[in-house]
Every structure is written in structure tokens, then in C-alpha cells.
TrEMBL record:
<dbReference type="InterPro" id="IPR050696">
    <property type="entry name" value="FtsA/MreB"/>
</dbReference>
<keyword id="KW-1003">Cell membrane</keyword>
<protein>
    <recommendedName>
        <fullName>Cell division protein FtsA</fullName>
    </recommendedName>
</protein>
<dbReference type="Pfam" id="PF14450">
    <property type="entry name" value="FtsA"/>
</dbReference>
<dbReference type="Pfam" id="PF02491">
    <property type="entry name" value="SHS2_FTSA"/>
</dbReference>
<comment type="similarity">
    <text>Belongs to the FtsA/MreB family.</text>
</comment>
<feature type="domain" description="SHS2">
    <location>
        <begin position="18"/>
        <end position="214"/>
    </location>
</feature>
<dbReference type="InterPro" id="IPR003494">
    <property type="entry name" value="SHS2_FtsA"/>
</dbReference>
<keyword id="KW-0132">Cell division</keyword>
<keyword id="KW-0472">Membrane</keyword>
<dbReference type="GO" id="GO:0051301">
    <property type="term" value="P:cell division"/>
</dbReference>
<keyword id="KW-0131">Cell cycle</keyword>
<comment type="subunit">
    <text>Self-interacts. Interacts with FtsZ.</text>
</comment>
<dbReference type="InterPro" id="IPR043129">
    <property type="entry name" value="ATPase_NBD"/>
</dbReference>
<dbReference type="InterPro" id="IPR020823">
    <property type="entry name" value="Cell_div_FtsA"/>
</dbReference>
<comment type="function">
    <text>Cell division protein that is involved in the assembly of the Z ring. May serve as a membrane anchor for the Z ring.</text>
</comment>
Amino acid sequence: MSWLGGHGDASSRRSGTLTVLDVGSSKVCCMVAKLKPRDDGKLLRGRSHRIQVIGIGHQKSQGVKSGVVIDLDRAEHAIRLAVDAAERMAGLTVDSLIVNMTAGRLKSEAFAATINLGGHEADEADIKRVLGAGAKQAMKAEREVVHSLPVGFSLDAERGVRDPRGMVGDALGVDMHVLTGDAAPMRNLELSINRSHLSVERMVATPYASGLAALVDDELEMGAACIDMGGGTTTISVFSEGKFVHGDAIAIGGNHVTLDMAKGLSTSLDAAERLKVMHGSALPGSADDRDLVSIHPIGDDGDVPLQIPRSVMTRIVRARIDETLELLRDRLNKSGYGNAVGKRVVLTGGASQLAGLPEAARRILGRNVRIGRPLGVAGLPEAAKGPAFSAAVGLLIYPQMASFESHPAKGISGLRMTGTGGKLHRMSQWLRDSF
């Protein structure tokens, strides 16, 4: 893989087809896209290709809870249906995909490594060597490296070097951001995909993918946090100077709000979900005590629904939302990247569509908050332009950034090669050559 992707001329970069799969707790989404090299000279930073979605399939998720596969058969079934629909729409067969992962107690760590240059110019091999040295420190038992990314290079005493190639010095140093996850949940996710006769090209952490899709260039550059609120999990990523510097995940999402409402109002999950979407809000309104909402309690087969004040519902929603946001605030402050984020937070993911959520987030996080939708991708149907599809779109953007990564070990998360020279081999080869 070339170390710096997408800076050659357009002729050296090739077009290709890319398939991504987002296996979430509430939906499974598969997208097939054509990537064409940009030749218009106006590159979005780090975006070397134009993305055109040509196939999309999404399904209600099954067998997945809080981002973890808990039932292989049901998860496989949902994945198969989503991929089939995307294949039919794109008119092609898929055999390997880029997949995101949320589970496995994602953990970000910073490492530094230095190698001796002895006064000569830094070249690709030196950069590989120093990245390898940084990534090696992160190999721990039972943990898999999901990403190992250079955050910045240093030459001798000069820090903040963006691209050290061709520069002269005695010591080349790198600061790495290494994100690791538990091996078992990753393996089970991969198993449920393999059982559908598909192979995993690469696993990408959900917070990284969502940030790539929902943050604009200025936010990436000046520093911002992206909070992706899904059904079963909420992830947070911090970007600074264009780099992904910190990631975290908590196993609380929109489904927990639904569950709280179902328990609190003793109604069914489906009814609670409907109430949440139609009337749910994280903001108490002035008319909430007068507004009545009708619910059908569980096991009550009477025709007359119960009328409850909307304020009862808002209190339940608000308690869970506040708790989630407080937890995120504490995680962010503990991470040491609170300053890097400054005042900018972008909310995305399906659960971010709850009424009043940006206001609640502003109050608790004490920062500016906006809702982020996936950016920079053509051909998305109207239904898939919302924040719920940020992670999937981010996976389409990811390969253009992947050239920065170093993979010390070709483990589950490394690019896996099938030596048969089959289609998978070509896809990996294309990914390697193009970026």
C-alpha cells in the first residue's frame, strides 16, 4: 500500500467497486459503490476518489445486541438479506466487504517510537519501520489492533512534521494512535459474515467511520468530536489536525430509551418505539402536562387506550438521555482530548434524531452541537441520507485514508489474502494499488 494515498496523479489511481457492511443493533446496511479517481484538482482533503452508490440494502437487525453478535444464525440471516438486496440493485455479486465494529470494549492508546536515520533522508522504508515499531507495542493477548495510525512525526527535536519523506535528520519519531478491541466479538462478527460466504476485507471502528462521514474538513482540521448514537451503542471519536486521535464506545443507545419507556409505561416494545419516534423528546415543553398521549398497556385487551400526559414520557426519555450524555462528557474529559475538541461536537447515528437532543447535548456537554448527516457521497436514496447511515457511508470513505495505517501483523484485522488470485485477491490488490 502506498503510504500516502491519493496524492499521485489521477492516472495512477484506478476505479473500482467497493462493498461495505454496517452490522448494527437495530439495522444491517450494505452499500455497493463505484469509486472513481478525482481529476478535478479540487480534492477534499484526503478524498482521492468520487463515490457513487450503485446498490443499497438494509434490514432490521437480528441476533445483535449492543453491537455484539449474540445469535450467529439470525445475524447471518439479516446480513444475507441486506447483501442480497444491495447486490440485486447494483447488478453484481459481492464477495468481500469492509465492515465496521463497535463491540469489544474499544480502547485508544497513544504510543511513541523513534528510529535512527543517521543523517540521511527519510524514505518510505524508514516510515514503515517507525510505524511498525510504534504498532508493535500495542500487540496484547486477547486484544486485536483495529487501527494503528500515525498522528504526527518528529525529526530530531522538531515535532509536528506532517510528511517526513525526503527530509534529513538523525532520528525519526512518530506518535501513534492505536485502537484495540477484544478479539472474541470481532471473530464472532466475522464468523456471521463468513457463514454468508463473504469475506471481511478490513474491520473499521465505528467511531472512525462515522467521523469521516459526518465531520466537515474544517472540523477535522481544527478538532471536533463526533458522537454516533446507534440503537445499542453510542460511540465517540475525536479528530484533530485531520487525524483520528481518540475513540471510545459505550453500550447504551436508542434502544435503551425505548426499553425504559416500555417498562415505565408498561407497554410493548413496538408501541414504545412508535411513541418515542412520534412524541418522544429530550426537552420538556410548556404544554407537556396538557398534551395527552394514548397507550395500550401490555396484556390489556380493552379497546379504550390509556391517556397519559406527555410529560410522563418526556421525564423517562430525559433521564436516560441525560445519563448517556453525562457518561460521554466524563469519558471525553478523562480521555485528555477535551481541549482538542474545543467547542465542536457533531451528533450522528439513528438515535440522534430524537427531538430536543441537540439542546440536551449543548446543556450537558457545554459545547456547540449540530446534527451531522453523511457527506460527500453521490447516489444515496433519500431514505439513506439521514444520520442513521453515517457509519456505512464512512466505510466507503475509509479506504482513501487507509494508506496511513500500518499493519504489523496480518491478523483478523489485517488485509487477508487468499492466495488463489481469485476475485477477493483482485479486490485487495485494487485497494492496495489505488490508495
